[in-house]
Amino acid sequence: MTSNAEANAKQRPSPKTWVMRGVVLLVALGCAPSIDIALSQGDAASKPPNCELDIYEPGLLPADHVLPVVGEVDIHDSGFTVDCGKARIRQLLRERACEAGADAIEIVQEKNPDLISSCYRVKARLIRYADESEAGQP
After folding, report:
1. Residue 23: which H helix or E strand, with range?
2. Cα–chain-centroid distance for residue 122?
3. Contacts of 77 (CB under 8 A, 6+ apart)
4. 3-class DSSP state for residue 63?
5. Residue 28, CB half-sphere, CA atoms under 13 Å: how many?
6. Rounded to the nearest 5 degrees, what angle is found at the Cα of 24, between the Cα atoms of 23 and 28?
7. Residues in the chain with pLDDT < 70?
């Protein structure tokens, strides 16, 4: 009987194996930032991922300057996010804006890494100019 018990013990993964599997699963499923995007007008053709965009930092646009918003993007920590520095998150923001056919991005809110999250987080509006004369005009 001991040989049967020994055989069963050899077939079962050790606790260390289960821990390693859990870590691998956690990293594989939780390493990307969470991106929430809501488009209000989906009729624009998408642009290449690194398209030319104007980027308006928070508070740069005057309150009375109204531009047509075609969507909003919120990029934040998903819990176990890695590769979420400002440059990477801004790159993801640009890619989503280009996919949506936007001409500009207005950063509404940004949060640098802090005690709550080790990631840069951003909320932005995607803008499509009514005509080319609005380009680059805050």
Report:
1. helix 15-30
2. 8
3. 33, 34, 84, 117, 118, 119, 121
4. coil
5. 6
6. 115
7. 1-11, 13, 15-31, 41-43, 131-138
Domains of the chain by residue range: 31-131
Q: Which among 93, 100, 95 has a CA at the least distance from the CA of 127?
A: 100
Cα 12 from Cα 17, distance rounded (Å): 10
Burial 82-112 (b: 16+ CB within 10 A, else e): eebeeeebbebbbbbbbbbbbbbbbbeebee
Kindly calculate the radius of gyration of the chain based on its CA atoms and give it in whole angstroms. 23
Question: Can you read off the two tokens belonging to residue 88?
Answer: 């990477």
Give the chain's length: 138
The candidate with the shortest Cα–Cα distance to 95, out of 109, 105, 108, is 105
- Two tokens at 117? 């999250």
CB-CB contact of 48 with 96 (8 Å): no
The pLDDT, as a whole number, for residue 110 is 94
Residue 134 exposed, middle or buried by CB count within 10 Å (0-12, 13-18, 19+): middle
